[in-house]
Write a structure and sequence with these properties.
heterodimer; A: alpha+beta; four-stranded mixed beta sheet; three-stranded antiparallel beta sheet; B: alpha+beta; Butyryl-CoA Dehydrogenase, subunit A, domain 3; 3 domains; four-stranded antiparallel beta sheet; 11 helices; 48% helix; globular
């Protein structure tokens, strides 16, 4: 057992960070945010989302094909490596339907190379980047399905209504009903939808993790720079303790996400629910605390922190909400309890029976 | 990243499971919490059983009488013994987890030979004399004095929050040997025999109603210089080794135990109807996530520490242990709050195990470095924020 990253994994992560620094610097994020591209999601005239050049660069770097075998044009790597790349994407707030396109690699032509953008729905609700997607994964049932269309056709095909997205870099549509299996342009894919949903939850958690660490960096650098009462605000314990709790959350989330990427086969649903639950919470609460550390500046459009918070809200509602994760984990406990052997501990004897007798 | 076990580690786990399966049913029942002599006898018998089976000091180095097991084997040991419901380390806590590792790391060959084998056999119990009434979080301000007199130190002062003092044979004691030196540089680590003339132990009753701790008064107690571990005035560094052990794997077994408790909570809640409350169910689900991840964090920290040891640092856990300590102490309190919710009115009866645990859990965010101190450590040493006040 060595839980730490291997040298190859570190190199992979560094490569992704370098790619994003070159292709998606902060100015790109800001120009997207400042254009407030969501007003007419995907409407002609607005900036293309996702950025096709960047999408192809990600495809060439193997971001989408990462887990395909080398014969299939992939890198033959696994979920642990995918998680590291998605963590970097989350750190940079990279927009686009990254998870769905990654999952579609090998299933939808063009996805692996970044030649097309694929979004996904597992239930009625908010769909990201729907107007620009060439395919939609439909993961509501036992078998995965794909709806293939020309760009711009998906909102109409799904009778989706554009939303004014809370996240200015992620256009959203609201879908009331998923199409029936029989519909003409829908094909059934040779993939288990429940496995894809679990992987989607894990990769989404990895993005949340990256964001949770990024907001620590933003908070700490602000707290060191900003001076009040004649010293950096980061020298006040009240501020220090906010930052310390941010790190605790992020470290716990990191541990959960990495562990789930390793044991997704063995203890899949519970480990992934754990990862999603803790990473969502870390991303949202860290963004909140980062905003607080920024003081008045945190309430402005100009600071990046609101972009992290809004993206975190969006991701937290995708695939597996906190309520769903917690209920799943509670049920796992109950299942374990039904197999619980009677312990040798004296304390075990005080369990149910004594609990009932003690006040009788 | 790899969480799989090697063939050797799997074999180790299988042998341990078989041994626990044979041994645990033959153990006597746990004695009452307040019967300290009986608890000592019980804990010592368990330690002796571990010793005779070759499991004592598993991860200690061979020169300290240990088995030189890998960190992974040590974690397997912690996980399997807790899962099987084996006795807790109990009265041997200080010896096995603080004083012993300190002596192993800093003691002379003669000191190791004198003190370590009885710890490993469960023959001698140690307690810890660090905190003082005026030196808690600010441990370096401790004032218990030791003045050199020939081959002895004459020690005068008082210590507080000393667990197991009433039944201990030895106390790992921090004393001030140079009052003129800067605070951290005038401290020395001594092994104090608890039966020495001038040692008075007064039990402290905790809010749980038990006597887990004691005050220890030292009036001109003579301690031989040969009982000093490490150089004179170097006790702070020696102690930091101990404390970082305390924050490393010391609570690992408890995380496994909490995870078991959580399953039993689910069973009880299901039996008494509380399971129908979605708010409570979700709380238990969240705690499941927290404790599962705290165990993973133990594995992570262990791997980091093992790597640090391989690459030349002293193998003591890094400041990442503060992250664990901070979250674990909170999660443990939340667990027993949830237990009270499951029990309902029964939680008001202190005879219930979970009520006793609810009370004792209140010490966790205070002992071994308060949560506030842990946050200071994280903010300043890990995040690099300016020194606060």
């Amino acid at each position: 057992m060595d839980f730490r990253l291997t040298d190859d994994q570190r190199a992979l992560r560094a490569g992704m960070r370098g790619l994003l620094a070159a292709r998606y610097p902060r100015e790109r994020l800001r120009s997207l945010a400042d254009a407030d591209a969501d007003v007419d999601a995907g409407a002609p005239g607005g900036p293309p989302t996702p950025d096709r050049g960047l999408w192809q660069a990600l495809g060439e770097a193997g971001f989408f094909a990462l887990r395909l075998t080398e014969q299939d044009g992939g890198a033959g790597l696994g979920l642990p490596e995918a998680v590291l790349l998605f963590e970097e994407a989350g750190r940079a707030l990279l927009p686009g339907p990254l998870v769905a396109t990654h999952l579609a690699a090998g299933l939808v032509p063009g996805a692996a190379e970044g030649a097309c953008a694929v979004t996904a729905l597992d239930r009625p609700g908010a769909a990201e980047h729907l107007a620009s997607a060439e395919a939609v994964l439909l993961l509501d049932g036992p078998a995965a399905r794909a709806l293939r269309l020309r760009p711009g056709g998906a909102p109409r095909a799904l009778r989706a209504r554009p939303a004014r997205s809370v996240d200015p870099t992620t256009p959203l549509h609201l879908v009331r009903q998923l199409p029936r299996p029989s519909k003409g342009s829908i094909t059934t894919l040779p993939a288990d939808a429940s496995r894809l949903r679990r992987e989607a939850a894990l990769l989404t958690a990895a993005q949340q993790l990256g964001s949770a660490f990024r907001t620590i960096g933003l908070a700490v650098s602000h707290a060191r720079r900003r001076s009040q009462f004649g010293r950096p605000v980061g020298a006040f314990q009240a501020v220090q303790h906010l930052c310390a709790e941010m790190l605790v959350r992020a470290e716990l989330a990191r541990t959960a996400v990495y562990a789930a990427s390793l044991s997704a086969e063995a203890d899949g649903p519970a480990e992934i629910a754990t990862a999603k639950l803790l990473a969502d919470s870390a991303a949202i609460r860290n963004a909140r605390d980062c905003l607080q550390v920024h003081g008045g500046l945190g309430f402005t459009w100009e600071a990046d922190v609101h972009l992290h918070l809004k993206r975190a809200w969006l991701r937290a509602g995708q695939w597996q909400s906190a309520a769903e994760s917690e209920e799943l984990l509670a049920n796992t406990l109950l299942h374990e309890a039904s197999h619980l052997p009677e312990g040798h501990h004296a304390s075990d004897a005080t369990d149910v029976l004594d609990a009932e007798n003690v006040t009788a | 990243m790899d969480l799989t076990l090697t063939k050797d580690e799997e074999d180790f786990r299988d042998r341990l499971r078989a041994w626990l399966h044979d041994t645990l049913p033959r153990l006597p029942p746990e004695p009452p919490a307040d019967d300290w002599p009986a608890r000592r006898a019980h804990d010592s018998a368990w330690q002796r059983a571990l010793h005779d089976a070759g499991y004592a000091g598993l991860h200690w180095p061979a020169h300290a009488g240990g088995q030189d097991a890998t960190p992974t084997q040590h974690l397997i040991f912690i996980e399997e013994t807790e899962r099987a419901g084996a006795p807790y380390v109990g009265a041997n806590f200080v010896g096995l987890l603080h004083a012993g590792p300190t002596i192993a790391a800093e003691g002379t060959a003669a000191q190791r030979a004198r003190w370590l084998p009885p710890i490993l056999r469960g023959d001698e119990i140690w307690c810890q004399g660090f905190s003082e009434p005026d030196a808690g979080s600010d441990l370096a301000s401790l004032r218990t004095r030791a003045v050199r007199d020939g081959d002895s130190y004459i020690v005068t002062g008082s210590k507080i929050w000393t667990s197991h003092a009433e039944i201990a044979d030895w106390c790992e004691l921090l004393v001030r040997t140079d009052p003129a030196a800067p605070r951290h540089h005038g401290i020395t680590w001594l092994a104090l025999p608890m039966n020495a003339p001038g040692v008075t132990v007064r039990p402290l009753r905790t809010l749980a109603g038990t006597t887990e701790f004691a005050e220890v008064f030292l009036d001109d107690v003579r301690v031989p210089v040969t009982h000093r571990v490490g150089p004179e005035n170097d006790g702070w560094r020696v102690t930091m080794v101990t404390l970082s052990y305390e924050r490393g794997t010391a609570f690992a077994g408890e995380v496994v135990a909490c995870r078991r408790t959580l399953t039993r909570l689910a069973r009880t809640a299901h039996a008494n109807g509380r399971w129908d409350d979605a708010v409570l169910r979700r709380r238990l689900g969240l705690l499941h996530a927290e404790f599962t991840t705290l165990w993973r964090l133990v594995q992570w920290n262990t791997c980091e520490a093992a790597h640090a040891a391989r690459t030349g640092s002293n193998g003591a856990p890094g400041p990442g242990a503060s992250v664990f300590k901070l979250r674990y102490s909170q999660a443990r309190q939340e667990l027993y709050e949830a237990a009270a919710e499951v029990l309902g009115p029964q939680s008001l009866d202190t005879r219930h195990e979970w009520t006793a645990q609810r009370l004792s859990s209140l010490s966790y965010t205070i002992a071994a470095g308060t949560s506030q101190i842990q946050r200071n450590i994280i903010a300043e040493r890990i995040l690099g924020l300016p020194r606060g006040r």
